Amino acid sequence: MLFKGLLNNKFFWKFIGFSSVQLLRNLFSTIDYKWAYYDPSVDAAISRQKYISLFWHEHILSPLFLRRNCGATILTSQHNDAEFVVSIARYFGMNAVRGSTARGGVAAIRQITSLKQHDVIAITPDGPRGPRRTMSAGAIYLASKLQLPIVLYGFGYNKALRFNSWDKFVLPYPFSRGRVITSPPLMVPANINKPTLEYYRTRFEKLLTQLTDEAESWAISNDNILGESFVNIGPKCSMTYYGAAKKAVIAE
Description:
Blueprint: H1 2-7, H2 10-28, E1 32-37, E2 51-54, H3 61-66, E3 73-76, H4 83-91, E4 95-98, H5 105-113, E5 120-123, H6 138-146, E6 150-157, E7 160-162, E8 170-172, E9 177-182, H7 194-221, E10 228-230
Helix pairs in contact: 2-4
């Protein structure tokens, strides 16, 4: 009963988040990261455009570390255990909006609409409860409603601990290789009907899984690919990017 009470206590999750931040900084700073873009201008560290970034829930820690203090806002559920993610996000200089299109959706959309013009909205489209790597229609609806582009983020590691959780949560091992592949901005038509919404949902679900699998394969193989670059952490990157990723196919 005591343990269950702690799991439902917001202050418990805030404490866990606070305690985890320095450990996560030390861990992720040992990782050899490379990034490949279809369009480098979407990088949250340098982008001046507002868009929605989607990545699977299992990799939620990766963007929190890599693009900390970049003016991003993460959309999280209203469940108490989401306080862990909210706490870490805030310590990494990110904002948090609580709610989803299913619960607290209207308030969340209002908060997102009021964000700065260049803010990136980060969403795990299979969260908070899964099924794993199954994209909900909420993010697609939001992109259609607000007419914001979607950018898909695929993360992968050559060595990582996978938790026995619904999402197979990923915690990379120290000194492992981390790889990131991002899509170009993808638009969803305004005022779409249900069949069209489902079309984009399944299309983006497949592509996000493809990018994630390719990022993991890239990390394992340690191959060089066209357009790769080393990753500067946080805002105001001085990195010059050459070319763009050419592995995944963006199908219309």
